Amino acid sequence: MTDIEIAQSCEMKPIGQIAEKAGIDEELLEYYGRYKAKLSLDVLKAPEKDNKLILVTAMTPTPAGEGKTTTTIGLADALSRLGKNVSVALREPSLGPVFGIKGGAAGGGYAQVVPMEDINLHFTGDFHAIGAANNLLAAMLDNHIYQGNSLHIDSRRITWKRCVDMNDRQLRYITDGLGGRVNGVPREDGYDITVASEIMAILCLSDSIADLKDRLSKIVVGYTFDEKPVTAGDLKAQGAMTALLKDALKPNLVQTLEGTPAFVHGGPFANIAHGCNSVIATKASRKLSDYTVTEAGFGADLGAEKFLDIKCRYAGIKPDAVVIVATIRALKMHGGVDKKDLAPENLEALEKGLPNLLRHVDNIKNVYNLPSVVALNRCPTDTDAEVQMVIEKCRALGVNTVLSNVWAEGGKGGIEMAEEVIRLCDEESNENFCFSYDLDMTIQDKVKAVAKKIYRANHVVFSVPAEREIKKLTDMGYGDLPVCIAKTQYSFSDDMTLLCAPENFNIHVKNVRLSAGAGFIVVLTGDIMTMPGLPKVPAAEKIDVSDDGVISGLF
Fold first, then answer.
1. pLDDT at residue 444, as a whole number
2. Model pTM?
3. Is residue 36 within 8 Å of residue 254, measured between CB atoms?
4. What angle (nearest 5°) sits at the alpha carbon of residue 498, between those of residues 495 and 502?
5. Cβ(94)–Cβ(427) below 8 Å
């Protein structure tokens, strides 16, 4: 059966029963139908627990992904089978990938969060609220200029873009305000995908309505003719934006196929944003369970780096253990095998591709000093010899490898993984955890630290516009913010064709962008774009609805 057929065949429990299992009082629930609910922010008033935080990340992925979300969900179900009080904290899927190349993004096989159709599509409307708040600010900005421009905003220096939650390359660069004076002031403009917007990042990093409003007020939308920053606060937009976002800030509660409580909230991309679910959802999960299993997007060089260097820094948390997901098929692809020929045993290619996984493992173990385990998502074509090679190479770094079969077996297929995670939490320490850079370093040095420690680049080459923008941001007092490096997810480098563990390469910074409300500097490298496009054959072509309303083809 397909993922959606498996999800539709399961019998979900009423969300009130899931809340009761999680220890959530009925009065804190706001029902969105029978199987979804939002939680009052009062859930954060619950007493602290001795919670173990588990981060799931991965090797450098192939375009189809390596099963990170599936592993996250399956691990939570496995911990539940072992009698642990556990919940899972995930991001909400973006409509871009859902209709683009990957299809649905709520796990897979027998390790899914449900109702998967709702979660993959409109869910509780959070993304719509984020897009509305983002575009309200854009409308108020352009209206201010049209109505006389008392703030003296230079329309050539506007940095705020509109957004839409769809892969739509046609909107990357546009000219708007055409059609005469009554239709606005003509200017060059553009769209970001909603998940890459600063509003998404702000929602995911805020820990209260007051914090949300304060962050929104700090958004820099452009500059005046004399180079002074103009903020959302200057436009008096933060109150209305907060009104649009106040319900979206509340975490969403759903369930896994096995009835494990799941907090699915927020959804920034990890290649062009910070790639983690919301701080509020993570904190709620930690207040209510003994184990919280969460994930960060794409490979550990992107999602995990930003989880550790940005989210952990702001939220005051640190993982007790890290799970690094890998597949033998992906390792062979990094070893030079064409994706059509990944099934046959190929120990030579596997050995050539293993340095990719080992670099991620080394980073988690020796840069961030965190206990870790490799979870090998086993495919039917994997041979025992191939599996043994992965085990031996990881063991040489002092990291165990466990086999995961959660796609086919749900929590039952993740018992070995769950036992190793419990052992790591009980027997190993995260006390020596450290960030990859200090905030008092210059913006350039912070970028260099990530590029050299995590990517293993030789040098970082900053373009003239990037150097100019960095100096301006530093002079404005933003030099002490963390950096959020945007680059391709398919390579340690900024060149997606450099697979495995490339060496002797440079990272090319073409520009930087201030996200003052979110609290970081976005660093754009290589050919990265903040509005993806659809592939030649988008997943949307296979999605349909029957006459009785049943969705098919979502994944």
1. 98
2. 0.94
3. yes
4. 115
5. no
**Which DSSP state fits 311?**
I
Q: Closest Cα partner for 481 from 451, 515, 439, 448?
A: 439
Cis peptide before 535 (omega within 30 of 0): no
Q: What is the pLDDT of residues 208-259, one digit of tens each?
A: 999 999 999 999 999 999 999 999 999 999 999 999 999 999 999 999 999 9
Q: Give the tokens for residue 389.
A: 């090679």
In whole angstroms, what is the distance from residue 548 CA to residue 48 CA?
46
Residues 50 and 289: beta-carbon distance below 8 Å: no
Question: 46, 62 in Cβ contact below 8 A?
Answer: no
CA 400 to chain centre: 26
Residues facing residue 322 across a β-bridge: 55, 372
**C-beta separation of 212 from 202 below 8 A:** yes
Rounded to whole angstroms, how far apart are CA atoms 271 and 296? 11
Residue 349: HSE in the Cβ half-sphere, 13 Å Cα cutoff = 19
CA distance 303 to 320: 17
Contact yes or no for 270/306 (Cβ under 8 A): yes
Residue 359 is predicted with a pLDDT of 97
Quickly count: other Cβ atoms within 10 Å of residue 504's Cβ.
8
- The angle at the Cα of 503, spanning 460 to 505, to the nearest 5 degrees, equals 30
Whether the pLDDT of residue 104 is over 70: the answer is no
Measured distance CA(269)–CA(531) in Å, rounded: 11
Indicate if the pLDDT at residue 532 is higher than 90: no
DSSP 383-435: -HHHHHHHHHHHHTTT-EEEEE-HHHHGGGGGHHHHHHHHHHHHHS--TT---
**Tens digit of pLDDT for each residue in 345-364?**
999 999 999 999 999 999 99
| Cα–Cα distance for residue pair 176/19, rounded to 1 Å | 47
Q: Select from 57, 555, 44 the least CA-distant residue to 296.
A: 57
Alpha-carbon span 171 to 178, nearest angstrom: 16
Contacts of 148 (CB under 8 A, 6+ apart): none
Q: Which helix (H) or strand (E) holds 443?
A: helix 443-450
CA–CA dist 350, 344 (Å, integer): 11
pLDDT digits (tens, 9 = 90+) for 5-52: 888 888 999 999 999 999 999 999 999 999 999 999 999 998 888 899
